[in-house]
Structure formats: C-alpha cells, structure tokens
Design a protein that fits this description.
Length: 261
C-alpha cells in the first residue's frame, strides 16, 4: 500500500543570549575553510593558507577545518569563529576583499575593512587585497576571555511531527532494522571516537570501532538531517561538521561527532 511519510522538522537550536555585544574575544579559535565561496578550487591563489597564516601570526589560533583540532573544540564547535572572504564589492579596476567571521549559528560577529588592490595579476591582487583587509585584525588587541559564556535559551526546542497519508499505514511507517542489529546494545554515550555509518533500510546504523551499534539514524526530507531512533534528538551537518543534539526536557550541549559515511 502506497504511503507517504512527511517529516516536519522545526529546529531552533540554542539561540544565543549575551549580556553584552558579542566580541571576537569571546572565541578561542578561528576555523578556516579549504575553499571560500567565490573560489573555484581548494586554496585557490593560496588565499585560505594566507588567512590561516595571518591569523596565527598575529596572535590568534587558527586551523583548517580538516586539521587535527584541539579536544575542547571537538567537543564544542561554538568555541570557534569560521572565517570567510567575500569579493562582492570588487569592480572592474579594483580587487576588493572583505574578511568575515561568523559564529557556530552563522551569525556574523565581525567583518574587516575592505581591502583593495589595483594589481591586474589575480594571485598578487588577491594577496595584496587580503593583507590590506587583515589590518583590521592585526590592529586588534585580541585576548580570549573564556568567562564570556554563550548561554542557550531554555525556550529552544526540537519539534518533530510525523503525518501519514492513511491512518492504517501508521504502523507500517516504522523502520525495521535488519536481523544483525541488536537494539538492546545501542547506546548514545558519545565521545571523540570515530564512528562509522552503515547504510540500512530507512537510514543509517552508526557503529563504533568494536563494532557496537551506537544509534540508528532515520532519514528525513531535509538534507544532512537525521532523527535519532528512540530519542528526542537529531544528527545534522553544518559547515562540514556533524552534530548530535538532544532535547529530553532538559537542554543539553550540542556534541560534535566524527562520523565516516
């Protein structure tokens, strides 16, 4: 019998309330992507490497997204700002670049001045404009202040609603695991280990290195968003990172996961 399951997922995760305006000093790390939005390839014109180099040179702690990250950053993605570079304001005769820093909720925390170059050779023009823009961060007296804690709003929630096309099809909407899955052995005690996703009917079975089943992810209509079977929780992907977020009546910190699909 034909059935259609519609998942409506409303995710309002951890809106940030801060007593004072957010500052770059609230963040411990800078994450640099391997490719900026306007680039055609990874580290084109070595801009990404230059951004990482300049941040580290002037007293920040910057990492590529695929570097070996510090343990506290693996546990809490919100300790870092993610950098981006925009060339939207460039014209015919000038290369103009702007450095943008955004938090883990994609809120822009800080932007640089517009760096400019009149050089015609692309690699030299981008490098010159980027160094010009970076003067904004070079001149800052940056100092990480760990006491500025980002506090999640207790009203935030994860609402998951399911509708079926026919009432009699409701029982059929359950995802049946294959016989080799022992549901009693599943556990969502997550740590920094590497987990492996095994494709199953209706989603993915997540196992550790033993291998022991850790959880089962139910596919949804949303890209890179899964419902954790048997939990009021989801697993989702953002900025190249996977996260586990649960709401069982008491808000918990979002955990980053290292999942290999």
């Amino acid at each position: 019998m034909f059935k259609k399951v519609i998942f409506t997922i409303t995710i309002v995760l951890f809106s940030v309330h801060i007593s004072a305006q957010k500052s770059i000093n609230d963040y411990k790390y800078i994450i640099v992507p391997k490719q900026f939005k306007f680039s055609k390839s990874d580290d084109q014109y070595q801009l990404n490497s230059l951004v990482k180099f300049l941040f580290n040179k002037y007293g920040y702690e910057a990492y590529f997204i695929d570097d070996q990250l510090p343990d506290d950053l693996k546990k809490d993605r919100c300790l870092a700002l993610t950098s981006d570079v925009s060339k939207d304001k460039s014209g015919m005769f000038k290369t103009k670049l702007e450095i943008i820093l955004a938090d883990c909720y994609n809120n822009v925390v800080m932007t640089s001045k517009i760096g400019e170059s009149r050089l015609k050779q692309y690699d030299r023009a981008y490098s010159q404009a980027l160094r010009d823009a970076f003067e904004t961060f070079q001149d800052l007296e940056y100092s990480y202040e760990p006491n500025n804690v980002l506090t999640p709003n207790e009203n935030n929630k994860i609402e998951i609603s399911e509708q079926t096309k026919e009432a009699e099809a409701r029982s059929e909407a359950k995802v049946e695991l294959s016989d080799d899955v022992i549901e009693e052995s599943t556990s969502t005690e997550l740590n920094n280990d590497i987990y492996y996703a095994q494709s199953k009917k209706g989603g993915y079975q997540i196992v550790d290195s033993e291998p022991k089943v850790v959880m089962f992810l139910l596919a949804t209509a949303a890209s890179d968003v899964f419902i954790v079977k048997g939990k009021s929780a989801i697993v989702y992907k953002e900025d190249g990172f996977w996260y586990y977020s649960e709401n069982n009546g008491e808000l918990k910190e979002t955990k980053s996961l290292n999942i290999k699909f």
